[in-house]
Amino acid sequence: MRSRLTWIFNCADTFSGNPKWLFLYVVHHRPDIEAVWVTDSKPTVHFVRSLGFRAELLTSRRGKNLQQRAGVFVVNQVKERIPPEMSGILLLNLWHGVGVKAIERKLTQGRLQARIARKYIENNKVYHDTMSFLVTSPAMEAHFREQVGLDDEQLIRGGYPQNVYARLYGRYSSFDHDLRARHGLSSDARIAVYAPTYRTEHRGESFLRAAFPDPERLIRVLRETNTLLILKMHPSMAKDPGFVHLRERFGDEPNLRFWDNRDDIYEIFGDVDLGIVDYSSIHYDLLAAGVGKFIRYAFDLDDAGVQEHSHDYLSLSAGTLASTFEDLLAALGGDNTVAADERARLADHFWAYDDDDTFTRLVDTALTRSLRDVDLPTLYSFDVFDTVIGRRGIVPVSVFVDIRDRILNARGRFPPEIARDFVRDRQTAENALREMKRKDPELRESRAFEITLADIYRRLAEILDLSADQRDLLMSWEIEAELAATRPLPAEVAHVRALRDAGEHVVFLSDMYLPESVVRELLVKADQSFHDIPLYLSSSTGVQKSTGYLYLHAYHDVGYDHRVWRHTGDNSHADRKAAGALGISTKLLPRRELDTYESALATALGTGDGYRVAGLLHDRRLAASAEGPTPFAFRYVSLFLVPYVLWVLDDAVARGYRTLYFLSRDGHHLKRIADAAIEELGLDLRTRYIFGSRKAWRLASQIDSIDEEFFGEFGTFAGARTVSALAEIAGLSIAEFSAVIPEATAFAPDVRLSQASQAALRAAMSASAVLDAHLLQRAAEERRACVAYLSQEMVFDESFAVVEYWGRGYTQECLKRILSAVSLSTSALPFYYARSIYGSDELCARHNFTSSAFSMLPVEAIFANLDHGTVQGYRHGSGGWEPIVEPRQNDADLHDALESELPEFTREFLRLQLTQPARTRRGLFAFAFDHFRTRPATTPYLTHLAPLRDAVELGGEEREFAPALSVSLFFNYLNRDTRGSVTRSWPMTFARTTGLPRLLLEAQRRYGFRRKLRAIERRAKHRSDNHPATWS
């Protein structure tokens, strides 16, 4: 519980200032009040206690207890930090000097402004609610109202305790005041004080060396005039090299005293004869103490680093004016008396409220004044780029690539090398200019490091020897590219709009080289209501968020008087660290950067369109969970499929096809992509999905004889690895099959056949007339069902094409033969492929998207991930002819993701404003396969593709695309005959393998088991060939 009868006093690490003199009054004249001096300085605590007063360390247990129960905290400045223990205490601010300088809220120059701004940003509400402030005259009341931001309820009118106390109660001594005796000077020696104000910078390396360039001459004049000169440095300038050097060299000089700031110089003001002053408030304190002689040493009045003047210094000061060191030396030999009426004028200006009731008024006010709860607004600031607006290509270089593309298309307007190197040259020109600014010593204090777009293109013109017209054209293209590339970022746009609608104070801050008019246009493009929101732009102000100075510029411009400042942005340094250093509450948004995959895509395409697609993938990555099959479907699978389907649609429209038939199982997802694109583009095309397969059509297509391919290495029996499998495909029992193919009896039905044995049995089957007749009979039966189904599902009297993805083209030939056998197809049958092995012929037209020999196996695995297997044939059901399919296990989550994400990607892709859509689609398609080929062990592939099960060969067994090795699979890996059946991607399998198989794999890599096994096989074969077996 706080008590207003417990007061704590502080003046930094010293026992001085106005708080000290009020402390002395309270201790001696208000015994009802508990008065304790508090500080962070142990020496000061010991010193105050040695004087017989109570003192505590702020960080001590007793100090913290005092802070928690005290009702009044007496200070002489607007405190930067208010400990949590002092929450709810009344701040009695007696200040430390009247004056003519710009201070506190109005300080706009120098290194102190950041510290001062921070304390108001952090504590403004506390100051308004709890601080009472002593003002000494109407002029100073107006001054501090403006400089500190006070209202009438916070004011106390009176004199400064450090001036009033001696007048009412006599001098107080905490140290030996007899300076003349201590320096061995006569009792009539003149005491002069030089106490220069704080400067943020000064001429040369030392302020005091600039002030006293010839200290020996100064000392001669002091001796000649019997003067003791006290040099009192501002605490922040106590380490000035010139002061330290003078003290080391002339520390024993009788006519010089280097003041120890631990001693309160106000205690000896009654002994001062001459004040040597500059712009410090000590000038007016000396006047109030009765000093009548002054020299105004204003040699650096107009220099940078001398704090700003809030009033006219010369008219509000008095004494002999010395503008040079020579003037000072001359003035020391003069009288320097200020006329009584001039002293009275200044006293009235600065001390009109000074009276003998000051102490009583201060105490009564502190005991009775209530704390407040002032309603203050919140200041909301937002970064612009990548916060409320973003580029479609995400990164700035995407804009430069767009300009490069325009240069390439501007035939003859620029030399070829300009386009070739433009992106690099544009970046290096900007970087070089920024480095020049950062290293410019003249900008060290102002921190005006920002550059403009015009600066960049002037630099480019110099480097590339551009004409003025070429330079201006490129600059206009960059502005146009930015205008075209940017789009609103919905979340923060909505946030800004909601704050504005609620009447909140909102501003924009941006580190950006673009002209302000362009940035404003970009903001209005994002939301019309942003047209009048204040915009603080580095290219206009010259200063940046990253240095903190743009925040300071906004702080001063808005006249910061808010409860809190909340800033939102995406840059960890400029929007969080630099803002946080000023006490601004920050919200850091995720950085809008391309990840490795997106960067690889943009680099591979090397165009502005490539960056726009990378931006699409980036946006989806941020909007959705990074885990699960959804991002895999949208970001990875779509690139294998959508470019191909869009080409199919373009080509089909150009060829006049009316209907596209998408063939199962490849066509399931391809059709959904096509339907989304047809709707988005408004195409006059129909699509249908038909069930068909090698299994369903190959035998049915054998009309008069079984063709040679039927028994070939890619034919109907290619996937059969056992006699049982061969018999099943042939439609015979094992006994029937063995009777027709006697060679099969040499093998157990379910034992895996070697590749040579498989080939031998297929050759025997091809030569069997009995099997041939059996298969032709089955073919006729299957063909009747097939034709019935196709007649039900397809319209043959219109122009159409069938869409597959990949194959040799043999399945197409099978369909052509089936349709031709019943006169349903009388011309070349058109099929679309991403790539087919066979080319077009007179019976089959094969439209290929690419001729590149990409491995299509990963896409086949994705197509196979349906909840049913390949079509086995057809049967007549209650609703007509239907395919015969068997249910199978699949990755249902991936399937659902593909169902939703592939059409969604298609729609969003088509909405991109691509400049070269056809080229971009082909580039994306190639990138998808190249990325998988070069980075198959990327996590999304390992997680979602590797476990998918499929049987690529007709009649083959389903197996994972890239399984982790088990011990048995490891030995299959060692075996030449079985190695190919283990996996379709060894890098993926190696990456998935763990445990003992992983150790075996590493041992194989180290010791080469496979190589040694092959050597053993070769030696065994050599012995067998040279020593054939003999039979008895």
TrEMBL record:
Note the Pfam families from the entry: Glyphos_transf (PF04464)
What's its membrane topology? Answer: Peripheral membrane protein
User: Any idea which UniProt keywords this protein has?
Assistant: Cell membrane, Membrane, Teichoic acid biosynthesis, Transferase
Give the source's domain of life in one word: Bacteria
Q: Which SUPFAM superfamilies match?
A: HAD-like (SSF56784), UDP-Glycosyltransferase/glycogen phosphorylase (SSF53756)
- List the subcellular locations: Cell membrane
This protein's record includes keyword Hydrolase: no
GO aspect biological process, one term: teichoic acid biosynthetic process
What InterPro entries does this protein map onto? Glycerophosphate_synth, HAD-like_sf, HAD_sf, TagF_C, TagF_N, Teichoic_Acid_Biosynth
The molecular function terms in GO held by this entry are:
CDP-glycerol glycerophosphotransferase activity
The reply to whether Ribosomal protein figures as a keyword in the UniProt entry is no
> How is this protein annotated for GO cellular component?
plasma membrane
| Family of this protein | Belongs to the CDP-glycerol glycerophosphotransferase family.
Name the record gives this protein: CDP-glycerol glycerophosphotransferase family protein
